[in-house]
Amino acid sequence: MRTAWPPSSVVAAQPTPSVVRRSSLVWQRRHCDRRRTEEKNVSEGASYAAAGVDIEAGDRAVELMKEWVSKATRPEVVGGLGGFAGLFDASALTKYRRPLLATSTDGIGTKVQIAQRMDKHDTIGFDLVGMVVDDLVVCGAEPLFMTDYICTGKVVPETIAQIVKGIAEACVEAGTALVGGETAEHPGLLEADEYDVAGAATGVVEADELIGAERVRAGDVVVAMASSGLHSNGYSLVRHVFFDRAKWALDREVPELGTTLGETLLTPTRVYAKHCLELIRALNKNDATPLHAMSHITGGGFAANLARVIPSELSVRIDRSTWTPAPIFGLVGELGSVELLELEKTLNMGAGMVAVLDRSAADAAIAELAARDIPAWVCGEVLATAGGAVTLEGSYAK
């Protein structure tokens, strides 16, 4: 069953496939109970409910999420909930001389398992929105609208509503509209308490205001913006270290973290979009364009992502001593005996976004970000050395 807003109707469900099933007693009991119900219904005639799809639960989820979705809007959004498509008034783009549309699609990854185990679902929407819209803003694009997709083994209306609540709140923070979404119920494909979440967004940027590698110059500096924690990358490694190797529980109080392991792992991703757009507007004006490029530090780590906006005729040197990663990063390395380079290839190490800009604009950029409660600092420089490489040197500050 697929419930969308818009639309709030349904289409065909996934049939229960033959899959590798978990062998827990709890699952076997649930499966046997379901099978007995289905066998009973064979004589009465097949039904969607007997196949494991609850249409009424889907409709209930839509009702619960409406309050939050209605707040995540923009003046350009046309119509409300219930249509077959979300509508956005493109005449708003006529103010652009040559508008370029930018699009991004992403998910949260295995961080959703932390939310599921903690039965806390109202923050991972920030992870989704951050992963999607912050990939748009790095080229200077303003996120206009977003849609989401939630796939679950069983629709629990309250859970779905909490997920969408977080997505909607994060969209408000990012300045983008949530114009639609889908909740797909896939019995037999996912367990009843399992779900995955993905989303897509569209943004716009003036063609001659596009930022990126083409603007980067030797002598530029790199300004890092602090992450709120792990964000949404590296959780397969993180879960392996804490759960498989260290055997830690999510409710374990960890002195170094100042809270439980679970609360730290579920810390929402910082959404940079609106702040970065304001930074671009504050610096790149009156024919001056000192902010040259941005990079969203996600999968692949600091070096690999920054290298994506560095031209091949240049290179970058990053000084680790300019910042101290949050304790969670050190714990992953210590408990898992993970080498530093492996950590840096997997985790953001405390910097979730970076800007490459003219050295003369560094202080103004840091001040602008500080006014928005985003700690920032100069962490490196662009060198006139060919290769496009990003090298991290030194040791992190204690």
TrEMBL record:
This is Phosphoribosylformylglycinamidine cyclo-ligase. GO terms for biological process: 'de novo' IMP biosynthetic process; adenine biosynthetic process. Keywords: ATP-binding, Cytoplasm, Ligase, Nucleotide-binding, Purine biosynthesis. One of its GO terms (cellular component) is cytosol. HAMAP family: AIRS. It holds the Pfam family AIRS_C. Belongs to the AIR synthase family. GO terms for molecular function: ATP binding; phosphoribosylamine-glycine ligase activity; phosphoribosylformylglycinamidine cyclo-ligase activity. Its EC number is 6.3.3.1. It catalyses: 2-formamido-N(1)-(5-O-phospho-beta-D-ribosyl)acetamidine + ATP = 5-amino-1-(5-phospho-beta-D-ribosyl)imidazole + ADP + phosphate + H(+).
